[in-house]
């Protein structure tokens, strides 16, 4: 039996009734209380935000921004850099002639591309066209280096103009990077377990088509900048007009990128990574590595989740702990994710389900199949993918992160009378809970058997 909750407060693993007045009071009602804030305000307020950066990418005024600065994990271990929405209340008393003023203008573009507001797949495996294990013939990576090989080969052939991904330094600190040369791809090899808002980079790429005076997120060397955005230099002088962009990301980033592509069509290929969860750099560097693993981050050469263990290899030793020891420290938004295999990607890649040194490849769309067929120097295995283990881990993630996301979507999109057109579309697409359907079927079968009269024995 569920405990009674105040309707104004979120419940664990989901919120059935959010309080728009509470959110408006904190962020400011922008003198339009009957219209209300975009629904990403609720997503951020209740820590459902995945920090994918899609709302930042699509916003015409740069009102939602994924926080770049450090977060305090001393009290809340799973604290993370989530989206912050700038509203008029933030700029009260500010002189617009001296300071940039860019509050939300209620265009609602952001809520159309938020993956949380779009829901989750019920069956993560129903869109797989075919699957196979592969590895690069020329590159060395953590598990087959297939993603690196795809990007390198497509850049060499001119099939894509650039690729957005994550790179790390020798201290495991990560940055968003745009790759424009095949030789740059090796910089991104290896798995990273700390998070960056990769889709936010699309803001600069698709705005490079217009005469904007806004300074870029991306510096000329391809690395995402840390300093605050200003309106000083035209980004058209910094970025080329990329027409064919590939993006590599984890499930939430992939979902956001897919929604972004539906609206702007600047992303040509989406490559998804199989992902259980990710961590903030603060918790990884202050808790997980030094305290739980007991090693120096400067000595770490590889991290990996494998067979229920979190494994860290250093120049001196290899240590492992049960995943349950580190999972609670994952970013708060990760605890609501119901996508393990990057369902919305064109191609999904991971290590689970194939032999060591090989990558599991799920081709999910016609576009993904077309591009993979163009990639050179990938060796494919004759062994079938061990799909049962992938499904087992997907089910485990769903169970651990279970919350009433359907209830949240129904409540939040039904708030408007009548619902906005894109809200109505999402309401119509909300699937019934699969578990409840099974339970009801089982109960129905039992009731039917009980209602039938006993048959006389012959």
Automatic annotation (TrEMBL):
Its EC number is 1.17.98.3. Keywords: Iron, Iron-sulfur, Metal-binding, Oxidoreductase, Zinc. Its cofactor is FAD; Zn(2+). Residues 418-458 are annotated as: Disordered. Residues 39-69, 97-125 form the 4Fe-4S ferredoxin-type domain. The keyword Heme does not apply. It holds the Pfam family Fer4_9. The keyword Lipid biosynthesis does not apply. One of its GO terms (molecular function) is oxidoreductase activity, acting on CH or CH2 groups, with an iron-sulfur protein as acceptor. It is an enzyme of class 1 (oxidoreductase). It catalyses: oxidized coenzyme F420-(gamma-L-Glu)(n) + formate + 2 H(+) = reduced coenzyme F420-(gamma-L-Glu)(n) + CO2. This is formate dehydrogenase (coenzyme F420). It comes from Candidatus Methanoperedens nitratireducens.
